[in-house]
Amino acid sequence: MQARWTFDRFEPGQRLGTHREALGPADLEDWFAIHPGDRDFLPRMPPGLALALVMRAYMRVLGDRPPGNIHAGQDLDILRLPGAADPLTTTLTCAETSLAGGRRRVAFDTVTTGDDGGCVFRSRIAMIWAG
């Protein structure tokens, strides 16, 4: 079992891990129940799912996080929309750490690729780290 992800464990440039996932029909139906108009994107992935997949990868890679972290912001660039059920791999890297005003801040970069190795989307996640 991996130790809890505390602030002192992060180093800028550190590759933290990857998460691979392909959405199944049930996942898509759950999404369409909330966003019925997104069916129009098929056979491509609806853009809103890109953010959901990035955050799911973040949670899987950094599974044991201290309680009380604050999601302070996020930028997402969609380079192309993959197929709705295409297998995707998201890599999470520590981009930077800082301590300001008594708050520990960590920024993470993600890159999500398709099976062809090409980037489909990337993001920067800004967190205020509790522990």
Description:
This protein is of the alpha+beta class. The protein is built from two helices and five strands; from the N terminus they run E-H-H-E-E-E-E. A five-stranded antiparallel β-sheet has the order 1-3-4-5-2, covered by helices on one side. The protein is elongated and about 45 Å long. Helices cover 19% and strands 39% of the residues.
Main sheet, how many strands, which sense, barrel? 5 strands, antiparallel
Mean pLDDT: 95
Give the ordered list of helices and strands: EHHEEEE
3D shape: elongated
Order of the strands making up the biggest sheet: 1-3-4-5-2
Fraction in helix: 10-25%
The total count of strands amounts to 5
- Proportion of beta-strand residues: 35-45%
Distance between the termini: 19 Å
Q: What class do helices, strands and sheet pairing give?
A: alpha+beta
* Poorly predicted segments: none
Rg measurement, Å: 16 Å
What's a concise summary of this model?
This protein has two helices and five strands; from the N terminus they run E-H-H-E-E-E-E.
